[in-house]
Every structure is written in structure tokens, then in C-alpha cells.
Write a structure and sequence with these properties.
8 strands, Rossmann fold, 213 residues
């Protein structure tokens, strides 16, 4: 379904080469989705089980997926960029997804740190592309802060949180989602890592990114 061979390396605006991996459906029926992994300094990478499950589910539902390693992770060049450098990484991935599948406007999703950086990229770029954030940390010094809701353009956004999340309370997530015009989905019995509930998260993203009827 791709117009040609897809790159396994991405190049950022500041000259960093990133490792990329594509999960492709037999036929596209929705947007290409860029999927951003958790914190690079705490084991985050494109091959985590939750991300593999989400990517496989999205591809099975007809959505091309681009996973990539942030700078300094796996086969990606460079080193930890404090969050700011990683926004360049998201931009490069979105650009690659748009170039590979020009008939389908790309969407962006991320887990934990990946959700925060993707949303910060949206604010900085003035992007209204569809977005899904899995367990974005609101109360931790380990990641950059989420952008203020007023910095975001209107867009279809979904924020997913387990009610046992270690870094964000349900109340705080609901407040941020309401201020940002996003849907909040709370998964009972889940913490920040969604062990055993990967398929439920994947189903939620597939439904959110389904083409409008």
C-alpha cells in the first residue's frame, strides 16, 4: 500500500539520524499514526510490549504505524535532548509519515514521556493533527511539563489513564483534558504500565483514529 520503500532511518532538523520501524496494513483505511515511546533514560524504546500491541492493532485496523527510537536510544544517533531535542524527533517522524502516505493526514500518539513530547510538539508546531496520549505524566520531575491547554489548536484528542497510575491522578487528568478539549478515558485497575490491558489500550486508539463516517 506504500508508494515505495519506506525509510528505516529518519533525519531530524538538527541533524540527528533516528531508527524507524513501520507496521503496515494490507490496505489503509485511516491516518498513518506516529507512535512515540516512553522516557529514553528509563528504558523507553520502540519495542516495548504495549507499543508493539498498539502498533499491531492499528495496522490490523488499516492504519499504517511509524514507530521510532528517540535520539540516543537503540540504533538512533545522538543523546538525550532534555525533551526539547525529542520534539525535533517527533517532527521528523510526522514529516516522514506524511511523505510516505500523503493521502492520509498523519496522527500522533505517545505513551508517558512520548505523550508529553508529542503534545508539546503539537503546541510548538501549531498542529491540529489527531492525537492520543497514553498515561501522560502530570506530576513528576522526570519529564517536561505538558503544554498549557491554551497553547493547543483545536483537534481530536484522547487521553488515556489507569486509575492506579503512579504519576497522575484521575482528577488532574480529567481537568487537563477538559481544559484542552480532549476526551478522557479512565481504565479501572490499570497503572502506568497497563500490564495485561495492552489490547484495551490498543482498541481505544484504533477507535479514536478511525476515519470519520
Amino acid at each position: 500500500m506504500s508508494p515505495g520503500p519506506l525509510p528505516d532511518r529518519l533525519r531530524t532538523a538538527d541533524g540527528i539520524t533516528l531508527q524507524a520501524r513501520w507496521d503496515l496494513p494490507d490496505a489503509g483505511r485511516g491516518p498513518a499514526v506516529v507512535l512515540c515511546h516512553p522516557h529514553p533514560l528509563y528504558g523507553g524504546n520502540l519495542s516495548l510490549p504495549l507499543l508493539r500491541t498498539v502498533a499491531a492493532h492499528l495496522a490490523g485496523a488499516g492504519r499504517p504505524v511509524l514507530r521510532f527510537n528517540f535520539r540516543g536510544v537503540g540504533a538512533s544517533a545522538g543523546s538525550w535532548g532534555g525533551g526539547e531535542g525529542e520534539e525535533h524527533d517527533v517532527a521528523a517522524a510526522v514529516e516522514a509519515a506524511a511523505a510516505a502516505f500523503p493521502s492520509m493526514a498523519p496522527a500522533v500518539a505517545g505513551w508517558s514521556f512520548g505523550a508529553v513530547v508529542a503534545l508539546r510538539w503539537q503546541a510548538a508546531a501549531g498542529s491540529g493533527t489527531p492525537f492520543a496520549g497514553i498515561a501522560p505524566p502530570l506530576r513528576t520531575g522526570l519529564t517536561p511539563g505538558l503544554p498549557p491547554p491554551e497553547a493547543l489548536l483545536p483537534a481530536r484528542r484522547l487521553l488515556i489513564l489507569g486509575d492506579r497510575d503512579q504519576f497522575t491522578s484521575v482528577a488532574d487528568l480529567r481537568t487537563y483534558a477538559a481544559d484542552a478539549g480532549a476526551e478522557a478515558l479512565i481504565l479501572p485497575g490499570s497503572d502506568h504500565f497497563f500490564y495485561g490491558r495492552e489490547a484495551r489500550v490498543a482498541e481505544a486508539l484504533a477507535a479514536h483514529f478511525a476515519p470519520a463516517s
